[in-house]
Amino acid sequence: MTFNAEVFQITVLSLQISALATGLSLLIGLPLGTLLALGRIRGRAFLLSLVNTGMGLPPVVVGLFVAMTLWRSGPLGDLRLIYTPAAIVIAQVIISFPIVTGLTAAALQSLDPRMRLQLYGLGASRLQMVWALWKEVRLPLLAALMAGFGSVISEVGASMMVGGNIRYQTRVLTTAIVLETSKGRFETALALGILLLVITFAVNWIFTSIQQRSARR
Amino acid sequence: MSALVELSNLLVYRGERPALELDRLEIQRGEVLAVVGPNGAGKTSLLLTLARLLEPQRGRILFKGQAADALPATAYRRRLALVMQEPLLFDRTIFENVAIGLRFRGVPKGEIQRLVPRWLENTGVLHLADRHAGEISGGEAQRVSLARALVLEPELLLLDEPFAALDPPTRETILQDLASLLGETAITTVFTTHDLREAEQLSDRLAVIIGGRLRQAGTADEVFASPADDEVARFLNHRVARSA
Lengths: 217, 244
Known about the structure:
The complex is a heterodimer. Chain A contains ten helices and no strands. Chain A is mainly α. The radius of gyration of chain A is 20 Å and the shape is globular. Chain A starts with a helix and ends with a helix. Chain B is α/β, with parallel strands linked by helices. Chain B contains nine helices and ten strands. In chain B, the strands form two sheets. A six-stranded mixed β-sheet of chain B has the order 6-7-8-3-9-10, sandwiched between helices. Chain B has a four-stranded antiparallel β-sheet with strand order 2-1-4-5, covered by helices on one side. In chain B, helix 3 (about 95-105) packs parallel to helix 5 (about 140-150) and helix 4 (about 110-120) packs across helix 5 (about 140-150).
């Protein structure tokens, strides 16, 4: 493998999959974390413990469960998603949404609880109250976003198991590195590794710049 | 003078225990009512109940003769404004802090540009408009929190021990400024305090709450001249002795 169209395709696919997975994790994790932090729910401590456990889910275990579910004979086998980019997205969402959920809940719980009363006391609707609180914790929320993205762009086990590392279809940077290493082509593997690091750094740099700009404000 | 708010037969729980039990209390239009009582007496519970931030287990709140809960909570709350003991400013500029309630109400931008500087000026903090909330002093922050409530021109202003966290000289100047602003605007105001001097200076009437129950309501002169019972007398004497 050389730095050619194939590497470009792998890189773009990696970014697409991880960006989509991070976006979906935000869509799930932000409201769920908010509900866990602010809602009147029984068993909050138990549910937060579940989420916190989920923050450390081993990607191979997630890969195993998603593979079993999407396998042709599995409960969702008819969808024919196994060994597709969609399967990798599903696995990555399961890996990263607990991270976004847990960090969102922790950020909101760190606020003075009277802030909600103050917002209501100034006429906020429930949605306006939540939006204002999200703005209050925008720095930790951006950190949650970065942690979510970091967890999926760098994982390999689940992508390998549910994606199958199929050339031009489901091969992403991490699975390509594993493949090249297994073939003893360390130079290519190293180059792909550096590319992965550079991309991860670039994405985090963008988010960190946004974060620090709002921190200075 | 007619009643803006009438509370009757009210029972409010906080957690497992009753925090407030009121047979009857009227808040007259345009008056400044000071709710006084020792710590834990139920003063804040009264304000939160008035703001529908605590739901009473029993009783009735009439706002302009209509049941308060006839309106959705948000629509009801948009008729009032709440200032808490801590300024609780939001992580944004002072201008944006004061504009937030107007934005919640969908007030047009032009109107916000007109109203916010006016109330920042009225409360003496116009020069801080572009500063960040984290860059100002405690006294300035409390002025901003007053501006944030007054800019809404509420029908009912609720102030929960707004000066308790301030040092005496700052408290004195803000108190004087607030007294003149309330005099000019005639906004019906309920404020809680355990400082009787502050209550006398700012209010038209006092309501003494002890142990979650309204013990006496009347002008400061009436309350001081003839306390309703021994406990009220003890509270008044104790506080007067402390502030002397």
